[in-house]
Specification:
The protein has about 775 residues and is of the alpha+beta class. Helices cover about 25% and strands about 30% of the residues. Strands 13, 14, 17, 18, 19, 20, 21, 22, 23, 24, 25 and 26 form a 12-stranded mixed sheet that branches. The chain has a 7-stranded antiparallel sheet with strand order 27-34-35-36-41-38-39. It starts with 7 loop residues before the first strand and ends with a strand.
């Protein structure tokens, strides 16, 4: 579907190996020609609309560059071939009409291979009411393509009143009722194939009776080109057919039913995919499709199709996550054959540039599982998961997913676009987003992006947003010097503390962890100020950090327990509300605030290890997979990763159906991106690779063997692949490193005896690091 991109399904997953993308700036702003159905033609409240335009070309084009957008979802065909889906997510938060980026995106596509000399048909289906639900409340479609030829003048084709369009009458909202007692009807999209105009996407179809479209005024603000590549798409083969009922015959991948019945099609892992079927049967037969993340009856989203006589093709217009498709067939009047159940896998185009392998097979499976959970959450934005597809900005999720991506794929563009979009959201929302703490994690994500890529231009571009954000949080400091005047303290973690759900805790629990994130945010903002030459702001942030550190120690440290309390009751003047429970007279000491105190050096150096030892003595630790990202970092910062890192990774359980872990330890979806945080720990800590200066100009290689015999892997950097392998033996520790050009590595080996570099004895500097230049090197540390 995308020229130059050749996705392949392999045993590891799906990748577009060798594909390279560089965003190209648009030469000028696009004043999109928006169109929609003519109200006079009886469009009504159509779920979707079908658009059509015939273009006759004097010769095959040399290039066709198209711009496409819609509110809210489009599918575009050229000569019957699907060539684009979109548009890319514009960026929005809890209330999309007030908290959004105020910048609608359009897709830029190379459509050259799909046009030919002679008659060509451009066809589009635009869904006005469907997920994602960030619509601005009015449907619309915009298209413009620039054609160039070898021996002819250029040509532009754009949406306008010369296009034809009708309501997509085949789609409707219908109710489905389960047979179980007490079940409620499920509202879903139904597709009635008999009501679709057959052949409307290809040449030869007579659209003369279709009404002409009408031009509409734009409500979509400024238009901006999406600067990420189109998603890759590949047909993912099913594994087998299961739970076939009476009257169901399975022959290869085809399933025939002689009467009403059911069966399920299973895939070997959870997918982010568009679900479609090809069925042959009698008109009026109803096929219900219920995709599920695990191999059991049930669904999150569902759809149904009413067949026409002969062959019916239908694709559910919503991307979903599933490993199994439960299928129920009813109103069977003649044998019906489901010839194909197709999963069109989609994700951001990635190459499996990173790798990790060690002597522990369970950890190897966990790294690969984490990579997959990351990949399926990378779409036209980072998703919390393809299951939920939360229509809000979740930079807490993105922070973790972007780091996973850097280690697994080395792709910077999705993070860059999301950072920009969320920056716009913050500015338009007064620097207060729905998940309050996530704003500060956006700032961490920005600095992580800078450290990985060295892209100082984006840092400078978003510097005003960083300063506005810190001003907002500084205004929430209360009389105790902590963040005690925030409107809420979302999102802490999916845990209960003292019987209180901490998705949105009261101030008595939320003060400490939010203040710790604010303290880290002040340091991030200081770095940005220094890089932009704003010395005054840098000094102000340093002063605030000293004040916050003093207040944190004074208000929260309990010397008897040797831990930090989460907060003190009745410190806030903010009234209780939907997202802020009222304070109660409690005192709690969560692992969350204590991990952050250690990680961000709010705790004195001598207390860091004792604090982590105390909270890790709790079994199991009252922290869900999301916050384990910060716990792992705190363990490493306290020099306890060897002791506790792998032990904590043992908490992850991979489900055999999905090949992934759950969003929470025992519940939630099976496709959540943040479940992949062990991948970071294995690549950054067991393998031992982290950037030590922006853009990987210098890199720290410091493996933590963690009781393992050996490990090897690759970390993609902006300069190429950095390869590390190490092994332990009775004679010592041996490490091999291959450093790409333009990079210098500081290698720190585990404690032991003398060190040899490429066969020669060397002295380690500082904490035991040996500096090596680009090329391959062998380092050996003899046993003591």
């Amino acid at each position: 579907m995308n020229p130059g991109m050749e996705p392949r399904v392999t045993a590891e997953g799906v990748e577009a190996a060798g594909y390279r993308f560089t965003p190209a700036k648009e030469a000028s702003a696009w004043q999109a020609p928006w169109i929609w159905l003519d109200p006079a033609a009886g469009a009504g409240e159509a779920i979707a609309a079908c658009f059509r335009k015939t273009v006759t070309l004097p010769e095959s084009p040399r290039s066709v560059r198209a711009r496409i957008s819609a509110d809210i979802v489009y599918r575009l065909w050229v000569n019957g071939q699907l060539v684009s889906r979109g548009p890319d997510d514009p960026g929005n938060d809890y209330s999309p009409r007030t908290r959004w980026s105020h910048q609608w995106l359009y897709d830029v596509r190379d459509l050259t291979p799909f046009f030919k000399k002679g008659e060509n048909v451009i066809a589009a289906e635009v869904f006005a009411r469907e997920q994602p639900d960030y619509s601005l409340g009015r449907p619309g479609f915009a298209f413009a393509a620039d054609f160039t030829f070898a021996d002819r003048q250029p040509l532009q084709v754009a949406t306008g009143p010369d296009w034809r369009a009708i309501p997509a009458a085949a789609y409707s909202l219908a109710d489905w009722m389960a047979s179980t007692p007490g079940a409620r009807p499920v509202r879903h999209i139904r597709f009635d194939a008999s009501r679709e105009a057959a052949g409307w996407r290809v040449a030869g179809f007579d659209d003369s009776r279709w009404p002409r479209t009408v031009k509409i005024d734009s409500i979509w603000g400024s238009l901006a080109a999406s600067e990420i590549p189109p998603r890759m798409e590949a047909a993912y083969p099913p594994a087998d057919v299961v739970r076939a009922g009476e009257g169901v015959t399975v022959s290869g991948s085809a399933v025939t039913l002689s009467k009403d019945g059911s069966f399920a099609v299973r895939f070997n892992r959870v997918l982010s995919a568009y679900l479609s079927i090809k069925a042959r049967g009698a008109a009026g037969t109803v096929v219900v499709l219920q995709p599920n993340e695990v191999n059991q009856p049930g669904f999150h989203r569902m759809t149904s199709v009413v067949l026409r006589d002969g062959i019916t093709y239908y694709e559910f217009p919503v991307m979903d996550s599933f490993s199994t498709v439960n299928i129920q067939v009813s109103k069977v009047t003649a044998p019906v054959t489901i010839e194909e159940v197709r999963a069109s896998f989609v994700s951001y185009p990635v190459s499996y540039a990173g790798s990790f392998e060690t002597s522990d097979a369970d950890l190897n499976r966990l790294w690969a599982s984490s990579r997959w959970a990351t990949q399926i959450s990378m779409q036209t934005r980072h998703l919390d998961s393809p299951h939920h597809q939360e229509p809000i900005s979740d930079p807490g999720d993105y922070l973790i997913e972007a780091l996973e991506n850097y280690y697994a794929f080395g792709e910077p563009w999705l993070a860059r676009q999301d950072l920009r979009k969320f920056g716009e959201i913050l500015e338009n929302a007064g620097y207060y987003n729905f998940h309050t703490s996530y704003s500060l994690l956006w700032l961490q994500m920005l600095l992580d992006y800078y450290d990985y890529t060295g892209d100082v231009a984006l840092l400078k571009e978003l510097a005003p947003v960083a300063h506005g954000l810190l001003d907002r949080f500084t205004g929430w400091r209360g009389k105790n010097g902590l963040i005690s005047e925030a409107p809420n303290y979302m999102f802490m973690d999916w845990v209960n503390i003292a019987g209180i759900a901490c998705h949105h805790p009261p101030a008595v629990i939320g003060q400490g962890y939010m203040t710790a994130f604010y303290y880290r945010g002040l340091d991030d903002a200081r770095r940005i100020a220094e890089l932009t030459g704003d010395r005054a702001s840098a000094l102000r942030y340093e002063q605030l950090r000293r004040e916050v550190a003093g207040a944190f120690q004074r208000e929260l440290w309990d010397p008897q327990k040797g831990l930090y309390r989460d907060g003190k009751p009745f410190q806030t003047s903010v009234p209780a509300g939907q997202w802020l429970p009222a304070d109660t007279a409690i005192e709690t000491f969560s692992p969350h605030v204590n991990s952050l105190a250690v990680l961000y050096d709010l705790a004195p150096a001598g207390e860091r290890q004792p604090i982590m030892e105390r909270i890790l003595a709790e079994a199991p630790l009252n922290v869900q997979p999301y916050f384990m990202h910060f716990v792992f970092a705190a363990i490493a910062h306290a020099d306890l990763f060897e002791k506790y890192g792998v032990q904590q990774m043992r908490r992850w359980r991979i489900h055999p159906d999905s090949g992934t872990a759950t969003e929470m330890w025992e519940s939630g979806d099976y496709s959540h991106g943040w479940t992949g945080t062990p991948l970071i720990q294995m690549s950054a800590r067991i393998l031992g690779v982290e950037p030590s200066s922006p853009g990987f100009r210098t890199v720290a290689v410091r493996p933590f063997p963690s009781g393992l015999e050996w490990a090897r892997g690759v970390v993609p950097t902006p300069h190429g692949k950095l390869e590390v392998s190490w092994q332990r033996s009775g004679s010592g520790f041996h490490l091999h490193v291959s450093v790409p050009q333009g990079v210098t590595a500081d290698v720190t080996l585990p404690p032991g005896g003398p060190i040899q570099l490429d066969g020669k004895s060397v002295r380690a500097a500082g904490e035991g690091a040996v500096r090596v230049s680009a090329g391959t090197h062998d380092l050996v540390r003899k046993a003591p």
